[in-house]
């Protein structure tokens, strides 16, 4: 069975209608999986469901063979999930380093090695570590958000539109960093509105339409026959 699986997820917000209809997202260990699709298709909702921010009416979420459907988001973090939501919630008046330290809140061990790894991955964050995060550019703030999620040493990193609102050059750079994260052995599941560029780096792609899987294939196959 795949490492992370949102299995036949059906559910919606509160008492509202189903947004997800039998939606299945399955990610192998070490893979980059990308969810694309039109606005309002339910991409963010699928991510929230996998992370435990949406109650499923049916279906399940499993990580590394374990059923985690009933777990809170925080408990999922403890199981090895990291999530970078679409809305940047970095602390603008805290320094870059303080933001990274906040990311490690669930850890009780020494975080300096992980901090060094994040700084290796994002040298600009090391350079600006003592500056308030609010002084950074949009792309650099995204790096803070990704770096902070990495501070928990996740097995799976989930990203909701990491390149939203950044320039094409910064987008390419962020994708390069995400590839490096995957090479370091961290499984990636992300939502992207820049479908073409994202599918280029994807091992697997999901096209969601109206809360259901329309196409599921390798990134390359989806690019060849969109
Ligand atoms: P996408 O990420 O593909 O743009 P979303 O998952 O954000 O789509 O939204 C899918 C549908 O769910 C939309 O109809 C949207 O209005 C609805 N929706 C999203 N968030 C909420 C919410 N917090 N409460 C109620 N409906 C929501
Ligand atoms: P997305 O790009 O994911 O579709 P939106 O801009 O639609 O995001 O939504 C921004 C925020 O508003 C999200 O937190 C989402 O959950 C919430 N939201 C979206 N649609 C609705 C809705 N119909 N009712 C309540 N909240 C919503």
Summarize this, please?
Keywords: Amino-acid transport, ATP-binding, Nucleotide-binding, Transport. The chain is an alpha/beta fold. It is built from 9 helices and 10 strands.
What does this structure look like?
- It comes from Pseudoruegeria aquimaris.
- One of its GO terms (molecular function) is branched-chain amino acid transmembrane transporter activity.
- There is one protein chain.
- By secondary structure, the protein is an alpha/beta fold.
- It contains nine helices and ten strands.
- The strands form two sheets. A six-stranded mixed beta sheet has the order 6-7-8-3-9-10, sandwiched between helices. Strands 2-1-4-5 form a four-stranded antiparallel beta sheet, covered by helices on one side.
- The two termini are 27 Å apart.
- The protein binds adenosine-5'-diphosphate (2 copies).
- The site of one adenosine-5'-diphosphate has 2 residues, from loops.
- One adenosine-5'-diphosphate binds next to α1.
Name the shape in a single word. globular
- What portion of residues belong to β-strands? 15-25%
By DSSP (H or I, 4+ residues per run), the number of helices equals 9
**Percent helix:** 25-40%
Secondary-structure class: alpha/beta
Please report the total strand number as a whole number: 10
Radius of gyration computed on alpha carbons? 17 Å
Strand order across the biggest sheet? 6-7-8-3-9-10
Biggest sheet record:
6 strands, mixed
Keywords: Amino-acid transport, ATP-binding, Nucleotide-binding, Transport
InterPro entries: AAA+_ATPase, ABC_transporter-like_ATP-bd, BCAA_Transport_ATP-bd_LivF, P-loop_NTPase
GO molecular function, one term: ATP hydrolysis activity
Protein name: High-affinity branched-chain amino acid transport ATP-binding protein LivF
């Amino acid at each position: 069975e795949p490492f992370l699986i949102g299995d036949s997820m059906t559910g919606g917000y509160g008492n509202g209608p189903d947004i997800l209809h039998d939606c299945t997202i399955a990610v192998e260990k070490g893979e980059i999986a990308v969810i694309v699709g039109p606005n309002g298709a339910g991409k963010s909702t699928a991510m929230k469901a996998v992370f435990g921010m949406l109650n499923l009416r049916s279906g399940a979420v499993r990580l590394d063979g374990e059923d985690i459907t009933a777990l809170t988001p925080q408990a999922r973090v403890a199981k090895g999930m990291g999530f970078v939501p679409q809305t940047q919630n970095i602390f603008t008046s805290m320094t870059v380093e303080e933001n990274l330290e906040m990311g490690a809140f669930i850890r009780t061990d020494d975080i300096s090695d992980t901090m060094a790894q994040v700084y290796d991955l994002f040298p600009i964050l090391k350079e600006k570590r003592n500056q308030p995060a609010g002084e950074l550019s949009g792309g650099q703030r995204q790096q803070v958000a990704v770096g902070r999620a990495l501070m928990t040493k996740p097995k799976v990193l989930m990203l909701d539109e990491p390149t939203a609102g950044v320039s094409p050059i910064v987008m390419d750079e962020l994708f390069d960093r995400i590839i490096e994260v995957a090479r370091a052995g961290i499984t990636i599941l992300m939502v992207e509105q820049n479908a073409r560029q994202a599918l280029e780096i994807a091992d697997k792609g999901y096209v969601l339409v109206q809360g259901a899987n329309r196409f599921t294939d390798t990134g390359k196959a989806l690019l060849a026959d969109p």
